Fold this protein.
Amino acid sequence: MPDRGPDILVVDLLGGIGDLLILLPAVHGLGRRHPGARIRVLTHEPGAELVRADPAVAEVRTPRHGRPGAERDAVVEALAARRPDLAVSTTRYDGIPELLSAAATRAVTDLWRRPPPDQPVGARYLEILHAEGLLDAADRAARPRVHVPAYARAAGERVVDRLVGDPLAPPVVLVTDAGMAVKRWPDPHWRRLAGELARRGHPVLIVGPVPAADPLGVPLPRADLPTLAGQFAAVARRGGVVVGPDTGPVRLAAAAGAATVALFGPTDARRYGVGGADLQGLPGCAHRRPTAITEQPCWWAARCPLDPAGPACMAALDVDRVLAAVVAR
């Protein structure tokens, strides 16, 4: 009877869907490099939905409660269930690296170490794991790719077919919201972009809040994340484009195969770029800190030092520039 493969515990408890998607190439690379490995992923809901059906992942764990210390408790439980041969983590708070290092045969617990300001975060992860001998050289060029289950792909196809029909031009999805106010593109910009796209014959679909009285476009129905990925995949099959800020749904669209136009303001497109057309507002802003974004004065409350009306970097992303990028895709 052959020996079982190694148990690999991957911990991503940073909280965002996008954070997990950035790490996904590392998960898949570890699976390729270690045939027969049992890869367990510990992450938050709802991002966990995106890896439950992934053939590379044997088990998905999530924190059991929402009280302080939930993430540390979840790590303790995962380690108690099975001592990993290898632990890999993006998560550095609450003593989690120390827990992993003490329990795992081998642990790589700081994928953020010494990042160059112009290197993509995901590429940094892959470079470090390659330097540790855990990935092959070819893995360093991998991009996030999400596994879309058959049910989600079929559901997405039905929805997009119903909403789009046989259009004159490819559909465009606008992701109008962001998880943080500092990343939001101004509403008048969205409205003008939607109008210009509609005049060119592009069906405009919306992910995010839609004003009932004067909608920007047709809302995609709310769905679980795999089905949203299926909707994005259906848009991609029609040559469509997804536009939005540095947020999880835009990363999900790219990971599902859609062309993207991503709007970057407080975050640096060189570090956090999605991989399509990544547009940077105010690239020379002296307050932007590419490797320490949470220390920027604007980050938590969207109070911009340059403009009391809102993030100047997002407002500086001109509609004509965004429109040109969409049309070029």
Summary: The first helix runs from residue 17 to 33.
